[in-house]
Amino acid sequence: MTMTSRQAYHERLQTLSEGSVHVHFDAFTDIDWDNPDFAIDPTDPRWVLPAADPLGGHPWYQEQPLEVRARIGLWRYANIVKVGMQFENVLIRGVMDYLFALRNQNPEFRYLTHEVTEECHHTQMFQEFVNRSGADVPGGRRSFRVVSRFLPLFGSLVPESFFTGVLAGEEPIDHLQKAILRGGDSLHPLMRRLMQIHVAEEARHISFAHEFLREKVPGYGKARRGALSVAFPVIMRVLGDVIVVPDRKVAEKIGVPHWVIKDIFWKSPEGQRLLRDLFSDVRMLAEDIGLMNRTSRRVWRMLRIDGRPSRFRGEPAPHRA
């Protein structure tokens, strides 16, 4: 007997839910915050950013004294973590808005409440790191912090756009964290532990967003799919920048010149390559669910996030060349 698309989707939700039951983390039992090895010293050379980080790989940064690189590195980690906390706060509120009207027996309810639970622990984990770092970082740009008051409404009003936005925030940071962990550089053990936990659980969250769009989008009418095909790359680029690109004024306060930020995000050849690499998995998704058409391809190209899609989710960047 052939399994229907809906049955296959529900089966995958069950698998994801069971994964959340058997493999999950608590912000205050799975991280030994008071372990001396996890102590945060701004001059610790292990805060120096690895080459896998866009700023860490830039010649200007690499030419700075060790103490300066460590201080800037701690600030960058803290600010990315703060943006992650803010983004996941929006995700939690939007998911709860989506869940409010779900009918009984819908297995999305169980999985998504697991995801919200995990994201709550992530926000605790991230804010605890920021507090202990001593870096008074703002996180996302002011415009994002203002708009974030309204973004959760998309969870129920336009769920396909909301979960596209979820991917736009999760995919870039997942890509960067995996690259850093794979790089083998000397990384502060506390930051390594945070990344390991985040990558492990975000794999399920990203999987759900992919599966949600694969299940829902093909059944939409032509107009709704057409609108999403154009909105999809725009959402990716806008929210991706919120996650990855540091605020110019804040960067200047800790001594990173504006021209360096512009060069990295995304003027230099290396920056342009990274920008395309960040969205290779979602380009694959857009191809698979029919969101790549003549008009939308132009938008991807105009936003400079076009390129070859991944052959499979999580394909390392060097193998996509």
Task: Please summarize what this structure is.
This protein has 321 residues and is an all-alpha fold. Helix content is 67%, strand content 0%.
Largest sheet: none
Give the radius of gyration: 20 Å
In one word, what is the shape? globular
The total strand number stands at 0
Number of helices: 14
The percent range for strand residues is under 5%
Task: List low-confidence stretches.
Answer: none
Pfam family, one: AurF
Protein name: Diiron oxygenase
Annotate the secondary structure layout.
Elements: H1 5-22, H2 59-62, H3 66-100, H4 107-133, H5 142-147, H6 154-157, H7 159-183, H8 189-216, H9 222-244, H10 248-253, H11 258-267, H12 269-278, H13 280-288, H14 294-302
Helix pairs in contact: 1-4, 1-8, 3-4, 3-7, 4-8, 7-8, 7-9, 9-14, 11-12
Give your account of this protein's structure:
The chain is mainly alpha-helical. The protein has 14 helices and no strands. It has helices at 5-22, 59-62, 66-100, 107-133, 142-147, 154-157, 159-183, 189-216, 222-244, 248-253, 258-267, 269-278, 280-288, 294-302. Helix 1 packs antiparallel against helix 8, helix 3 (66-100) packs antiparallel against helix 4 (107-133) and helix 7 packs antiparallel against helix 8 (189-216). It is globular and about 60 Å long. The mean pLDDT is 93.
